[in-house]
Specification:
The chain has about 160 residues and is α+β, with helices and mostly antiparallel strands. It is about 30% helix and about 15% strand.
Length: about 160
Amino acid sequence: MLTKDDAYALGAVGPTARGSGIVTDMRTLGYAAYKQIEFEPITETAGDSYSRCIVRIKELYQSIDIIAQATTKMPDGPIDMKVTGTPNGEFFARTEQPRGEVIYYAKANGTKFLERMRVRTPTFANIASLLKVLPGSSLADVPVLILTIDPCISCTER
């Protein structure tokens, strides 16, 4: 069980957080075309594996609706852009991915090569949730508990 308070304290994001009743979704900030899309973050409050699965299932149907809205609201115009290099400066962005919030940081030096690039994936935020859900669980429940936070092992490789 991952309570709302525990999910918040451990920094859970995405369906892991929403399955514990935390209303969080970076798309509600209105970046890119999301300011023109109507939707509400899907939450469940029980904080168990079932709740995390239900959030994901409901988000599948919600994604179909978001795609339908996006295709009808997409403006006419060119769809490609020429990239000529990077400006000198820093960039920080937070976006929502299927597993939750991802953070990008880039530092450019005015050449075609980035000076620094860092990505904080949702798995890094959610892996700490296992500290609350695994202790006291039966061995048979461990795979389900791990899989319902949907870890991406390659996302954590450094």
